[in-house]
Amino acid sequence: MDPQQNSGKNQGQPSAPQHDAQTGQGTPSIGIDRGDAVKQIVKAAAKSGLAEEIASVTTIKEEKADPKRSPGDSLSQPSQESDPPPENDSGKTRRIILIAVIVCVAVGALIWLIVFIMGKHGSTDADSSAASDSAQAEDSSDTHQLETTGESAPAKEGIASPYPASALDYYPEYKRAVEEKIAYDGTNEPTYLGHSVSKTGFCLYDINKDKTPELFIVSGKRVIEILTASNGTAVTLLASDSADYITLCTSGYLCREAEDGSAVSTVTYYALPQGQPTLENAERFNMNYDSNSQLVYTVAENGESREVSEHDFYALQNAYGATVTMNPTPLTDHITLKTQTAAGTAAFAAGGQ
To answer: Using CA atoms, how far apart are residues 133 and 154, in angstroms rounded to an integer?
Structure first.
């Protein structure tokens, strides 16, 4: 038979064992590719669990070779010391919150400290300023110079409390002066400076704090005369007429306002120096029209006049304080009236004119 034909017939079939002439042994011949064989073995091992066994054995051998390697390390990881476990999100959040709280507390404490220091400093300045103002009020002259700042001027010093009406009995010079000024016409009610005695009263105020009260003669709600005692004599300080209006300010200054029925007016403030029986002009406020029929506001002090704004015109006056409300005691409670005609007495008893 032709060898080539025989070769063709055996193609694709396993070849028969060949005989070695030298050894007399036959060499087995397998017709399966090695790569395919390895793949088949790996698949079979995977199905039978042999791969896990091999990995376990290999791990044990590596642990013996490297004692530092932990049993849980995989075959593919190099032998090294284990890193600390990473911090989880909860721990990070708590640490951030703690830091934020500490920062807020520190900032709040700093703000409180700044406010406390500034407040203490401001209070110290205010106390120093008050002490300085008090010292200046004691050492300043009685005219009390004012400045036009566009704001309310500082208030003047207050007066003492009113004296009781019974104090009039300790000043006979006042009683004599009043009794001498009461007019009798024999038919009508006695009058004092043109005002019915039955409607006239008095008050006592120490306006310059010299421990001697001044006598205010009041008719209705209007002050008609002010007297002061000097060396056993009663001296008239101010007396009003029908066009004047006299008041006592809470600062101790006297105010005399005169108007002509229009917008034109003059307001004068007076001070009574201690130890003197006469008043001194503090300031005079004039309001009048100019050639253009515009109101002009001026303030005169120490013989010098200056023009001011409307705001300053009233602000400077407000510095003298409000008007003191008086509650006069009737003159007849402490003054002895002279005897007059029967007709005059009857008219006086009936309330007068």
So the answer is: 10
